[in-house]
């Protein structure tokens, strides 16, 4: 049973890590419901249908605490975007092309961390950097895609 709970906790983090982060910022734990993470068939196959309502609440509480611990560990281990950052590009923005460096108005410097090409010109567009399951993502005003980034400074 412990092995199954651990697997369930990891799956819940992967499936809902962005939502977990937003909820976790508002409270000391993420709100996870094991019944929503699994199909009814999986829930029954795992034996969770035999738990009482209090036991389900205890399981969900534990999953929330565990998920928050994983999220905190992930955001502190190099992602460095535990919180949402809102600022602007400092100057011209011309998209990204593989290893683009982004200088921001707040003084931070970020670099593209995944390969992608996209062209869009804007002068000092608004930028939002936010945690995601894969690391830090950057969303730029006027651009439909977001891009994985890493902080240089």
Describe what you observe in this structure.
With 153 residues, the chain is an alpha+beta fold. It has 2 domains: 2-79, no CATH class; 85-151, no CATH class. Helix content is 41%, strand content 22%. The chain contains 4 helices and 8 strands. It has helices at 2-26, 34-37, 40-45, 53-79, and strands at 85-88, 92-93, 101-103, 109-112, 122-123, 126-132, 135-140, 146-151. A hairpin with a 2-residue loop joins strand 6 (126-132) and strand 7 (135-140). Helix 1 crosses helix 4. Mean pLDDT is 79; it is low at 1-27.
Feature tags:
6-stranded antiparallel sheet; 153 residues; alpha+beta; 41% helix; 22% strand; two-stranded antiparallel ribbon; 2 domains; disordered N terminus; 8 strands; 4 helices
Question: What's the topology here?
Answer:
Elements: H1 2-26, H2 34-37, H3 40-45, H4 53-79, E1 85-88, E2 92-93, E3 101-103, E4 109-112, E5 122-123, E6 126-132, E7 135-140, E8 146-151
Antiparallel strand pairs: 1-6, 2-5, 3-4, 4-8, 6-7, 7-8
Helix pairs in contact: 1-4
């Amino acid at each position: 049973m412990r092995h199954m709970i651990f697997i369930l906790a990891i799956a819940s983090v992967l499936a809902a890590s962005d939502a977990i982060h937003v909820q976790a910022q508002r409270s000391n734990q993420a709100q996870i419901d094991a019944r929503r993470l699994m199909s009814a068939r999986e829930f029954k196959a795992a034996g969770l249908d035999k738990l009482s309502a209090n036991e389900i609440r205890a399981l969900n509480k534990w999953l929330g605490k565990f998920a928050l611990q994983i999220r905190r560990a992930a955001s502190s281990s190099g992602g460095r975007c535990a919180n949402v950052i809102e600022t602007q590009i400092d100057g011209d923005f011309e998209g990204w092309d593989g290893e683009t460096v982004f200088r921001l108005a707040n003084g931070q410097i970020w670099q593209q961390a995944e390969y992608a090409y996209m062209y869009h010109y804007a002068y000092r567009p608004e930028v939002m950097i936010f945690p995601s399951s894969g690391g830090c993502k950057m969303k730029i005003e006027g651009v439909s895609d977001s891009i994985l980034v890493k902080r240089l400074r």
